[in-house]
Design a protein that fits this description.
Two copies of one chain form a homodimer.
Chain A (H helix, E strand, L loop, with lengths): L9 H10 L3 E2 H11 L8 H13 L3 E8 L2 E8 L1 H25 L10
Antiparallel strand pairs in A: 1-3, 2-3
Helix pairs in contact in A: 1-4, 2-3
The structure holds a DNA duplex (30 and 30 nucleotides).
Amino acid sequence: MRAQALHGHLDALLLAVLEQGAQHGYAIIEALRARSGGTLDLPTGTIYPALRRLERAGLVAGTWSTVNGRERRTYQLTDAGSRALAGERAGWREFSATVGRFLGPAEPPATPA
Amino acid sequence: MRAQALHGHLDALLLAVLEQGAQHGYAIIEALRARSGGTLDLPTGTIYPALRRLERAGLVAGTWSTVNGRERRTYQLTDAGSRALAGERAGWREFSATVGRFLGPAEPPATPA
DNA sequence: GCCCGACAAGTAGGCTTTCTACGCATGAGG
DNA sequence: CCTCATGCGTAGAAAGCCTACTTGTCGGGC
């Protein structure tokens, strides 16, 4: 899937991943790929700038650590980040409900029971 | 709601509105506002260029008509537009399912029983 | 007669966000 | 020695939507 379509929701996804525990950029990329079943395969050039943006905004806190001689920047959700995530979640719900009203009520094939 | 978040889905919304019958730009804006319960209130500067883009792409066909001395451009879904809409719908479903996996499975606050 | 608000379409310039492509560095395996 | 996987990062370009503005008709209030 084009992450292009994410536009504006990428930040929310990153926060959501970090909600489950602090991680470094590379691991976040893999987490997104894994949790989405391979659908979300975002390039580093998308993730790293986004993380720095979130850091500048105070939603995540980054700390350097060295693992096997390799420098890692581990990002952790801040309080503000948690609050922002809650807002993003609410926003996503409204957004998906609204768009879903036009593009199909988000009723997947479903196997409804 | 910021239509900014639409990014890439606006075309799909327009096609979806036109699916229910040909309409002119101004009416489309009102249809979006009405059907979304007021959530989607898109400015003309967003809709009109988008419609022309869709027209250039051959997804809608526009025809001029004069009503009460006022010029109207009525847009109608083309075959290609219908097909595109189907694709957009599928794309939306995948997209919302994927993002929903991270931001909450579309489970609203719910008052859980 | 004049002005304003609703209807109706459109353009121009700017902003934000993401993508592509590249650079730099370490450690392991061939 | 060279390459690949890990790991971080920047630069420039492309895409999409927004704000603000312009043009024009019609109807109502003053």
